[in-house]
Design brief:
The chain is mostly helical. It has six helices and no strands.
């Protein structure tokens, strides 16, 4: 038999509220592409910058499309992982090895560089 205490009711209410909030958030995620910021470098020059596609990639990742997220911007997952580890280390004082952070920064930078060079040499970067 389950006893319903005040603490259990509070936890179940919080859980129901969080589930409703997440469901409303996920339903509205498909409509958020109209709020994306345009790239100022692409707007001025007409050429993609190394960060073009990041916002669309994060949206695809939030909706669960891992392959679309990777195809739009391959460095999204390493960048978010580096950001999470760095924020855990500096804001929440979680001990994180600095060598691991450096390796993650270099991996993220390498993925950004390689994917941008691929865009250049495959003709995917379009100018005016």
């Amino acid at each position: 038999m389950i006893l319903l205490t005040n603490n259990n009711l509070r936890i179940s209410f919080n859980l129901m509220f969080n589930i409703k909030f997440l469901s409303v958030f996920c339903i509205n995620l498909s409509k958020t592409d109209i709020f994306l910021f345009p790239c100022p470098i692409k707007y001025i020059t007409g050429i993609d910058c190394p960060g073009c596609g990041f916002q669309r990639s994060v949206l695809a990742l939030l909706t669960g499309n891992l392959t679309d997220s990777f195809l739009l911007y391959p460095a999204t997952i390493p960048f978010i992982a580096s950001l999470l580890l760095a924020s855990l280390s500096s804001f929440f004082k979680v001990p994180v090895d600095t060598k691991l952070l450096r390796v993650m920064y270099f991996v993220t930078g390498g993925v950004i560089s390689i994917s941008y060079l691929y865009k250049i040499f495959s003709g995917q970067i379009v100018s005016f």
